[in-house]
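User: Can you predict the 3D structure of Ribosomal RNA small subunit methyltransferase E? Sequence below.
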Amino acid sequence: MHQDRFYLSDTPETQEIWLDGGEAHHILHVKRAKPGTKITLFDGKGFEYQARVTEILRDKVKLFIEQSRAVDRESPVDITIAFSIPKGKHAPFLIQKCAELGVQTLIPIFCKRSVVDIRDTAGEKIERWKKIVIETSKQCKRNYITRIENIISFADLVKNAHHFDLPLIACIEPYAKTLKSLVHDYPSAKKIVCMIGPEGGFTENEIGAAKEANCMPVVIGNSTLRVETAAIAISSMLLYAYSETTTTFS
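Assistant: Sure. Here are the predicted structure tokens for Ribosomal RNA small subunit methyltransferase E:
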């Protein structure tokens, strides 16, 4: 039977806990839970809890945890998407869908041709995005929360490319390889980053710097894609290619 899911920001240390804030408001005033109502909690660290409402106050709810268990629905491959922020509502859409797919980390980057610059207001923006990934995990039954890093420059991102088994930079240059060929060449990659540029694309200097850092230029398809489309497409392709149950792209 379906049970509503709610997020615990801290792993519970006892069976009886009080929950307040936004999640308590959702339980009490949206779902209109009563004593005895059963719900599912998750802590964003891989644990899921079956709980029962035992007491209700105006702005908080007391829960009794009946069962806890580790539930891992994550992909075996750790995917990071580093993206130049698109305009308007497209950034929240990108974040929601990448979190829904199972991307583990999102890194907003500032490039030469970036149109949106949030460097002076990044904290407020990222806090709103973190709320999106929490709501997404609640809906899609992930027990982990997609991490959203602070915005960094493209140059700083490239300096850290060596931390990944397979660092990719999406572009439409004629020498860029297909994802199919790169997966074939790196079948055991477990930690992958893909850099998605702004609407005008990466500059030649940025692509050159990425290549010097051993990033692999990759072409996603025959069309020039929007930032959010490219992020969702490459995430889906990588998750499918490196899933344990398929041999596609081999």
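The two ends are 39 Å apart (CA to CA). The first strand starts at residue 5 and ends at 7.
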